[in-house]
Amino acid sequence: MCSHAGQAQPTSPFPRVLVNGQPIVTISSPYVVAGCALTGTNTPPCVTGQFTTGATRVTAGGAPVATLTGSGTCTPSGGPLLPTVAQRE
Q1: What's the CA dihedral at 48, 43, 3, 9 to 10 degrees?
Q2: Residue pLDDT, tens place only, 32-42
Q3: Beta bridge pairs of residue 9
Q4: 65 close to 36: Cβ distance less than 8 angstroms
Q5: Across all residues in the chain, what is the average pLDDT?
Q6: Exposure string over 30-61, b if 16+ CB within 10 A, otherwise e
Q7: Global pTM?
Q8: How confident is the model at residue 88 (pLDDT cuts 50, 70, 90)?
Q9: Contact (CB, 8 A) for 65 and 51
Q10: What whole-number distance in Å separates Cα of residue 45 and Cα of residue 33?
Q11: Which residue, among 54, 10, 5, 14, has the nearest Cα to 32 in the 3D structure?
């Protein structure tokens, strides 16, 4: 999610690797943000996001896997993209 409570969804999960039958997400997948509450300021609300850090030793397709300890940035606000939900093994 964005730091303004907007819900973020990956636009391109990695379908070749599954956890509990669901595709994983790497940090190269862009996110779309809906419902950002950043209003009433000169800064436009968050509409997209991108993780910049993820797993340090696990990759898929050459990109680090997105993790709960990863971090990212939303655009155009520049606020953080916060991981809040993850698949469990």
Answers
A1: -20
A2: 999 999 887 88
A3: 32
A4: no
A5: 92
A6: ebebeebebeeeeeebbbbbebeebbeeeebe
A7: 0.87
A8: low
A9: no
A10: 9
A11: 10
